[in-house]
Write a structure and sequence with these properties.
About 80% of the residues lie in helices and about 0% in strands. With about 190 residues, it is mainly α. α1 packs antiparallel against α2, α1 packs antiparallel against α5 and α2 packs antiparallel against α3.
Length: about 190
């Protein structure tokens, strides 16, 4: 009788432990999805501002057609991405295209003085700053989920229920090299 009660108690403890691990993994996955929902809000604002910026700049730099087409194409791809991972990839490509646009537009001083362009550029800079903040939160939530999926003993539960490691939002290699390079300061 005592042995049977002891076995039942052990089974109940193991079941409670398994349920607790599973629930923790679900909470971590939901936290990551919530973090990406915050990114989605900022991305929507970014996507809404880009056509206005491109239209304003086109008047000044009509011969830079390929740059505008690349930004428009990247924006379209980003807006049509469905999964979190597809959106991460598409948004990295859009960021690269916007960086190319920024470099191109710096060559037009008359554009830099246009009030609408300056306003749009400020709004996009604000959105980019907010995106950086929510991306850090997303990466933190992703890291926490990935740690739980990869570490023992929760990795056993994760494997049983199909939890897997998820990608983080990373700086593309081309941009990483640019950030690691010391700035060129001239007087």
């Amino acid at each position: 009788m005592i042995i049977a009660l002891l076995i039942i108690a052990i089974v109940i403890l193991v079941a409670v432990w398994l349920v607790g691990m599973y629930n923790r993994l679900v909470k971590l996955r939901n936290n990551r999805e919530n973090a990406f929902a915050n990114i989605d809000v900022q991305l929507k604002q970014r996507h809404d501002l880009i056509p206005q910026l491109v239209a304003t700049a086109k008047g000044y730099a009509a011969h830079e057609k390929s740059v505008f087409e690349e930004v428009t194409k990247a924006r379209s791809a980003a807006m049509s991405a469905n999964t979190v991972n597809e959106k991460v990839l598409a948004e990295n490509q859009l960021s690269n295209a916007l960086a190319g646009l920024k470099v191109t537009l710096e060559a037009y001083p008359q554009l830099q003085a246009d009030k609408l362009f300056v306003k749009l550029q400020g709004e996009i800079a604000d959105v980019e700053n907010k995106l950086a903040a929510v991306r850090r939160f997303f990466n933190s939530a992703t890291k926490e989920l990935n740690n739980a999926v990869q570490t023992f003993p929760s990795n056993i539960i994760a494997g049983m229920f199909g939890f897997k490691t998820e990608p983080m939002i990373e700086i593309p290699q081309q941009e990483r090299q640019q950030y690691e390079k010391a700035p060129d300061i001239q007087f």
